[in-house]
Amino acid sequence: MEENCVQPTHERPNKGSQHQAASPVNNQEEPNYPREEKRAGVYGLKLNDLLDQPIVVSPGKYVRLSGLGRQAEPGLARLQPKNLDDVKRWIGIPDALGAKRSCGCDLPAGVPGVSTAGDVRQLDPNMQRALHDLANQYVNGDSRPLAAYQSTLNLLVDRAVINGVFLRQDIDIHTGAVLEIAKDLKVLFAGHIRIWRGGLLKLKGPTKIDCVSITGNLTNMIVAVDHLPSFATLISLEAINA
């Protein structure tokens, strides 16, 4: 199982940062609507699709975010890509960066007789695997050498859904607290993410973090109170350690 933990050890310079109140209200900056609209628009979302509240995980708490078994709601989006370029834009990497990675996949001579998603599902397993390898390279590598296969690769997104958490406000993870992002969530979109000293942001899968900034090693000055969305689950430490 792929798992990543974000636990920054250095705080970005920020005048008076150690004396800011830890309440979600005091930590919020003034809204920047053009910036927010532009960031949300990348995913085809509007501002009212975002959850307009912060997430605060108080000291010593373990909280999991997941969209399993839930319908789309503010803050929990189910993105439906129209083509592979949507997938690359939402959870992939730019071509300039992808070009620095070597492609470990073999380019097939062609895929004759494939014009619909149903045709793809009728291909033999080896050819399907080869197409998925190419799609992975397209999304996470340099897509330009694969332009000739784009129309075929676009068929792979048929019925695809990409789940993500989308917040207009910030995330605070306090001392000894853990915010786990379940592997079904492919995007974590927020304003500023602050990981207080001893806190942990745990990614259970390949989740893209899209935020204005992320800082760590902050010092708590007041008692924090949990502020969680409906799709959050508070988990006992006994259950985690069992």
Q: How many domains make up the coordinates?
A: 2
- The ordered H/E elements are EHHEEEHHHHHEEEEEEEEEH
Output the number of helix runs.
Answer: 8
Q: Shape, please?
A: elongated
The SS-based structural class is: alpha/beta
Largest sheet: 5 strands, mixed
Instruction: Calculate Rg over CA atoms.
Output: 20 Å
What does this molecule look like?
- The chain is an alpha/beta fold and 242 residues long.
- The chain folds into 2 domains: 4-78 and 163-241, no CATH class; 82-157, no CATH class.
- The protein is built from 8 helices and 13 strands.
- The strands form 3 sheets. A 5-stranded mixed beta sheet has the order 1-10-7-3-13. The chain has a 4-stranded parallel beta sheet with strand order 2-6-9-12, with no helix packed on it. A 4-stranded mixed beta sheet has the order 4-5-8-11, with helices on one face.
- Helix 3 (84-91) crosses helix 6 (125-140).
- The radius of gyration is 20 Å and the shape is elongated.
- The two termini are 18 Å apart.
- Residues 9-26 have low confidence and may be disordered.
